[in-house]
From TrEMBL:
Assembly behavior: Homodimer.
Family recorded in the similarity comment: Belongs to the heat shock protein 90 family.
SUPFAM superfamilies in UniProt: ATPase domain of HSP90 chaperone/DNA topoisomerase II/histidine kinase, HSP90 C-terminal domain, Ribosomal protein S5 domain 2-like
Region (A): 1-348
Gene Ontology CC terms: cytoplasm
Name of the protein: Chaperone protein HtpG
Domain of life: Bacteria
GO molecular function, one term: ATP-dependent protein folding chaperone
Compartments where found: Cytoplasm
């Protein structure tokens, strides 16, 4: 027995147990090696005209024997001599494919696509096999040789028989244990599934004996009640697709093909809303095929949802969900990225250096943004449907980035315009603003209908200004993170985003402000009595310069609005968590104010407390906020009646 070169036992044990985390990729690695062997022979035929090959000769075959518990991967590639078997399989981490790739890098072109890099993929077979036998016959040689090892101490090389050039890798599977079963690799379905998942786009046909069904001829003496009979039979069939759809130009693929690929590979029954095809060449070459779904998956906003694009290198699947390729706010995008320029780590399961990946991710993000902008401008109905499904994630992207992503995402947002009675972008709102409008106004609540009826919204509309009606819990947090919108290239001209329910909303003229100040001074004792009646519910009671026909409203001081308080009350801290600083504003021109004055002048403190409670809770209800004691409120209404 020959001993493995290098610190064999330790290194082999490291590779079998540490480098690879998913044992089922052994088939991917062996098929990749087989593809490299076929590629080398094909390349040799391009440079040596004496070699004549037909396309049918260039193939890979996968088979299994249930009784012998073996899985075999065979190729019709260049094969190996005795010395090459010793060098390539006896020296761990020696990559003949990498050497070939470097030697022929300038001349191999697109016709040859060598996958191997590290010379360790073969040893992944020991994760599932208790022994591995490799029978190989080099092209042009009359001799075949067999390399065999149990993956522990060493290996043997002996003469063998093989009719044609190429290599067979025969794995004798480990015995099942209570923890691990290997029987899944001894079935047609199990092996086909692995081929489809990891090696579907290897450029050479991968063939297997598959079970098919056919109808038997109808017997001549069959009666009218004859039921057709079928039989199963075995047939050698190609089980991989070979040509990836993402490497074909968009002009060569119709939308129906894209739709079918999307629905099959990403398990959706509906066609995608958008298809984005990218072919980049240059310092970093890659192909990408991206899909924007037409509906949101049920678990999109759950913790279990996993974003990411399928990452391929030279048509071989590296990661099913590469999260680094998508920002969180585009987590709904499905698709594939394929690049042979990626620097993979030794296991091919993760990336050794991610600078290339970051560069690809940045370009993909720009492409998605550009496509969504095109959809917004040229298919408004489709974009509104898209935004209904995925707009929350775009808003959250601005909030989660503390506003740093607003330049990317702000123009993709849609909000309902109270003035225009439709969804508008921030740019459309900004363009329609009167010249004297000091800010961009919005109101936050649980429905457009209720927000439209708010007194303060009517006040703003009465000034000729529009109000964006925000009905999602993330809206106000998004606007708070954005702070402003509309700056020009010089960073000037931006308008502040302002909640109409904030206490610093200043629409009053100088005369109105003067009237409010005088009313406040004249009724100072009344306001103190109302504040005492409400206690800690409000920070103060004041005259409003913003109300027209409503008797009172509740506004806030500080960074936390009523809507923020409502949203945060649903969090872990519950209703006892973050509280806003509430202000009860009274309309001094409303008849109710005269009633309040009369009660105060009469010294009727019970009535003052009753009125204070009614006005405050009524204002909260108008704002869509819960009241602390609905029963007491109802009793007070009945008492007043």
């Amino acid at each position: 027995m020959r001993k493995f070169k290098t610190e064999s036992k330790k290194l082999l044990d490291l590779m079998i147990n540490s480098i690879y985390t998913n044992r089922e990729i052994f088939l991917r690695e062996l098929i990749s090696n087989a593809s490299d062997a076929v590629d080398k022979l094909y390349f040799k035929s391009l440079t040596d005209k004496s070699i004549e090959l037909s396309k049918d000769e260039l193939a890979i075959q996968v088979s299994f024997d249930k009784d012998a518990r073996t899985v075999t991967v065979s190729d019709s590639g260049i094969g190996m001599t005795k010395d090459e078997l010793d060098r390539n399989l006896g020296t761990i981490a020696h990559s003949d494919s990498m050497a070939f790739k470097m030697e022929n890098d300038e001349v191999q072109g697109d016709d040859v696509d060598i996958i191997g890099q590290f010379g360790v993929g073969f040893y992944s077979s020991f994760m599932v096999g208790k022994s591995v036998r490799v029978v190989s016959k080099a092209y042009g040689s009359d001799e075949a040789w067999a390399w065999e090892s149990d993956g522990v101490e060493g290996y043997t090389i002996e003469p063998a028989e093989r009719a044609e050039h190429g290599t067979d890798v025969i794995i004798t599977l480990k015995d099942n244990t209570d923890e691990d079963s290997y029987d899944g690799y001894l079935s047609e379905y199990g092996l086909k599934d692995l081929v489809k998942r990891y090696s579907n786009y290897v450029r050479y046909p991968i063939r297997m004996e598959v079970t098919k069904s056919r109808e038997l001829p109808k017997p001549e003496d069959a009666g009218d009640d004859y039921v057709p009979q079928f039989e199963n039979y075995q047939e050698l069939d190609t089980v991989n697709s070979m040509i990836p759809i993402w490497k074909r130009r968009k002009s060569e693929v119709d939308q129906e093909e894209y739709n079918e690929f999307y629905k099959t590979d990403f398990h959706d029954f509906a066609d995608p809303a958008r298809t984005i095809s990218v072919h980049a060449e240059g310092a970093l070459s890659y192909d990408a095929l991206l899909f924007v779904p037409s509906r949101a998956p049920f678990d999109l906003y759950s913790r279990d949802y996993q974003k990411g694009l399928a990452l391929y290198s030279s048509n071989v699947l590296i990661m099913e969900k590469c999260e680094e390729l998508l920002p969180d706010y585009y987590n709904f995008v499905h698709g594939v990225v394929d690049s042979q320029d990626l620097q993979l780590n030794i296991s091919r399961e993760t990336l050794q250096h991610n600078s290339q990946l970051r560069a690809i991710a940045k370009k993909i993000e720009k492409k998605i943004t550009s496509d969504l902008e095109d959809m917004r401008d040229n298919d408004r109905e489709g974009y509104e449907a898209f935004f209904e499904n995925f707009g929350r994630g775009l808003k959250y992207g601005i909030y989660a980035s503390y506003g740093s992503q607003k330049d990317t995402l702000a123009d993709l947002l849609l909000y309902y315009s109270a003035k225009q009675d439709k969804l508008v972008t921030l740019a459309e709102y900004f363009e329609a603003m009167p010249e004297d409008q000091p800010a961009i106004y919005y109101a936050a609540g649980d429905s457009v209908e209720r927000l439209n009826k708010m007194p303060i919204v009517k006040t703003v509309l009465g000034k000729g200004y529009d109000v964006l009606l925000c009905t999602q819990d993330v809206d106000e947090f998004c606007f708070t993170a954005m702070r402003d919108y509309g700056a020009n290239e010089d960073g000037e001209g931006a308008k502040e985003l302002k909640n109409v329910a904030s206490g610093d909303l200043d629409f009053a003229t100088e005369d109105e402000k003067k009237e409010a100040e005088e009313a406040t001074k004249e009724n100072e004792d009344l306001f103190k009595a109302l504040k005492d009646a409400l206690g800690n519910e409000v920070t103060k009671v004041a005259v409003s310069a913003r109300l027209t026909d409503a008797p009172a409203c509740v506004t806030t001081e500080g960074p936390v609005s009523l809507e923020m308080e409502r949203v945060l009350s649903k969090g872990p801290e519950g209703p006892d968590g973050v509280k806003s600083q509430r202000v009860l504003e009274l309309n001094a021109k409303h008849p109710v104010f005269d009633t309040l004055k009369a009660a105060h002048e009469a010294g009727d403190n019970d009535k003052i407390r009753l009125y204070a409670d009614l006005l405050y809770n009524q204002a909260l209800l108008v704002e869509g906020m819960p009241i602390d004691d609905p029963v007491a409120f109802a009793q007070n209404v009945a008492k007043l009646m």
